[in-house]
């Protein structure tokens, strides 16, 4: 992922006048020393005194030439030049790497501060507890990191930068793949790996020139080893038949696949964030959940979400089974497994019995339904002061510890003549420690409700949203508690307790279990997986595929004629680091020797130091 890869992936090798192969695309003789000496001579010309500064050059062409000898005058870029320069900087690989690092750093505040899209209550609490810091954090959108202007800007710039890097590199690589291998160097002995073989005349078929026949056989061997080969007959290249071969183009292909996959991952994440959604729902035994917006307890839509995108599937909780640890002493009574038996109905109307377990979500209607929690829902009946049923049904309670001591809040806005509120504990296996009611086990062996009751205005008639698990008692009048003569409410299953002052009664009529469901729909999840696999594959290909070049020359002595042996010379050059180049040279030499009987061998397999 560097700009050097771009240049190395396409620039052809050049040969120096003395026959050596150059792999840097430069011209022989260029260097900083000659340039510095010339600059020093030109800098001293004009006064003859090294201690005197030359006068400013005059305007015009002469002045421009003088400016080149003294202080350099940079030309004005203009609007088009500035835009071109900005685009060049933006689409450089260094900028892409910097933006990728900056994106990772910008995501850190999303894990340090609560986010509105996932936990708006925590954000409100944070601002309430620290108004000064909360106001500034909110002003800089640190509670909405992933939808903030600055995070979106980094994301978009990274997207553009990667595309700007990929397109020209793809074009250059396509041109490089269609370009013949570089011309054969004059002196193969200067290459890192080289060797020479002498071939007997009897071992070579004389078909259109002995050297050309050997050249064609050598080219066929190199093709079998995956090289892209160009044959250069003797009649076209100064009487010397040669082969130019190159392989490793898939290395740059892997590099491009890796970068394209990065763009695909970014695009898939953006699509998932725009068109996906997540929601939570508490589902009590016997109840059904329909995938509509009003059925969720909390819902976090994507930026481009449309309510009509919800697939109308349903999930009914038939039964919930919990397994407790009854064997070990360290975790006795803890939950070690729970399964929910559910009935699902597809958008097509097909019904199916399924099991919902932790880490085994349901796949239905394009969404994934996860089991994320469970608890108890005591069934309660509340009658108001006029004897009418003001509330009847299960009340989900929130577990507070490992033995499922649970917080229960009940708001009854329909009670007459005064609205009623209850807050307290549900104890699955009730006990007492130091005069305080506690739960001794998470199983419902001895369930009990311990509640305080209130009456007054619950504040629900104003239409202001409230947390269903929080009861604001500041504006309410207390009816039952441990601090009053009436005491708190202690209710066992099947019991009914009258409220003071004729405000009504409350009954504990049964007990059910509930599960917490987390519904996720992410259309970008599958593309992210596909592009991630492609990125890893491309990276592996890019890292472990060597880029090599091979040249083979075949000579014959024109004076001795057909009876003379042929001389084969070969050389290898790596593009970049290749520790296995020596091994490749050994393999090629063995293949050449196997192809032609070579009683006479000469030369070396390595360049002289």
Task: Explain what the structure shows.
It contains 13 helices and 27 strands. The model is unreliable at 1-68, 202-207 and 600-604 (pLDDT under 50). A hairpin with a 7-residue loop joins β16 and β17 (420-427). Helices cover 31% and strands 29% of the residues. The longest helix has 29 residues, at 149-177. The relative contact order is 0.13. The chain has helices at residues 3-10, 32-44, 61-69, 78-90, 93-106, 109-112, 120-129, 131-139, 149-177, 210-224, 249-275, 525-544, 581-595, and strands at residues 14-15, 21-22, 193-199, 228-232, 241-247, 277-284, 288-290, 298-301, 314-324, 335-345, 351-357, 362-364, 367-384, 389-394, 398-399, 406-412, 420-427, 430-433, 436-439, 448-456, 476-480, 489-491, 496-498, 504-521, 548-556, 566-574, 600-602. It has 609 residues and is α+β, with helices and mostly antiparallel strands.
């Amino acid at each position: 992922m560097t700009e050097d890869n771009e240049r190395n992936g396409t620039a052809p090798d050049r040969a120096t006048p003395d026959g050596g192969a150059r792999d840097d695309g430069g011209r022989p003789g260029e260097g900083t020393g000659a340039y510095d000496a010339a600059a020093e001579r030109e800098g001293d010309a004009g006064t003859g005194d090294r201690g005197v500064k030359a006068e400013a050059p005059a305007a015009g062409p002469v002045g421009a030439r003088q400016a080149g000898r003294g202080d350099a005058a940079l030309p004005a870029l203009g609007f088009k030049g500035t835009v071109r320069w900005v685009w060049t900087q933006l689409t450089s690989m260094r900028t892409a790497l910097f933006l990728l690092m900056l994106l990772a750093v910008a995501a850190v505040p999303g894990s340090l501060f609560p986010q509105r899209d996932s936990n708006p209550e925590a954000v409100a609490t944070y601002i309430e507890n620290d108004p000064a810091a909360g106001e500034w954090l909110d002003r800089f959108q640190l509670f909405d990191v992933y939808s903030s202007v600055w995070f979106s800007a980094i994301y978009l710039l990274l997207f553009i930068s990667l595309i700007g890097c990929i397109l020209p590199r793809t074009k250059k690589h396509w041109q490089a793949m269609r370009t013949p291998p570089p011309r054969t160097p004059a002196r193969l002995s200067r290459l890192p790996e080289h060797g020479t073989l002498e071939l007997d005349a009897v071992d070579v078929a004389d078909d259109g020139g002995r050297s050309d026949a050997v050249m064609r056989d050598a080219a066929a061997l190199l093709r079998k080893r995956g090289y892209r080969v160009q044959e250069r007959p003797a009649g076209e290249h100064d009487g010397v038949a040669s082969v130019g071969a190159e392989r490793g183009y898939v290395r740059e292909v892997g590099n491009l696949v890796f970068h394209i996959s990065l763009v695909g991952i970014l695009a898939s994440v953006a699509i998932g964030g725009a068109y996906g959604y997540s929601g939570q729902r508490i589902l009590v035994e016997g109840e059904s959940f329909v995938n509509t917006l009003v059925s969720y307890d909390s819902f976090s839509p994507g930026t481009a979400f449309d309510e009509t995108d919800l697939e109308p599937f349903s999930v009914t909780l038939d039964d919930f089974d919990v397994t407790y640890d009854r064997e070990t002493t360290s975790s006795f009574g803890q939950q070690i497994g729970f399964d929910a038996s559910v009935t699902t109905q597809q958008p097509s109307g097909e019904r199916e019995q399924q099991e919902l377990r932790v880490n085994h979500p349901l796949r239905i209607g394009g969404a994934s339904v996860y089991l994320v929690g469970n608890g108890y829902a005591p069934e309660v009946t509340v009658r108001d002061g006029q004897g009418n049923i003001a509330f009847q049904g299960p009340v989900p309670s929130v577990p507070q510890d490992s033995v499922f001591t649970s917080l229960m809040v009940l708001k009854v806005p329909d009670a007459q003549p005064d609205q009623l509120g209850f807050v307290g504990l549900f104890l699955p296996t009730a006990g007492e420690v130091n005069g305080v009611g506690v739960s001794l086990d998470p199983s419902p062996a001895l369930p009990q409700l311990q509640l305080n009751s209130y009456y007054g205005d619950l504040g629900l008639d104003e239409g202001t949203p409230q947390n269903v698990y929080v009861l604001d008692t500041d504006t309410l009048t207390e009816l039952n508690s441990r601090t009053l003569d009436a005491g708190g409410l202690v209710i066992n299953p099947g019991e009914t307790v009258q409220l003071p002052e004729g405000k009504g009664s409350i009954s504990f009529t049964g007990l059910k279990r509930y599960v917490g469901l987390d519904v996720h729909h992410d259309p970008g999840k599958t593309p992210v997986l596909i592009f991630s696999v492609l990125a890893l594959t491309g990276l592996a290909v890019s890292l472990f595929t060597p880029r090599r070049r091979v040249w083979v020359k075949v000579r014959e002595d024109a004076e001795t004629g057909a009876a003379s042996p042929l001389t084969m010379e070969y050389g290898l050059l790596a593009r970049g680091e290749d520790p296995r180049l020596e091994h490749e040279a050994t393999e090629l030499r063995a293949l050449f020797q196997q192809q032609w009987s070579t009683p006479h061998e000469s030369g070396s397999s390595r360049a002289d130091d």
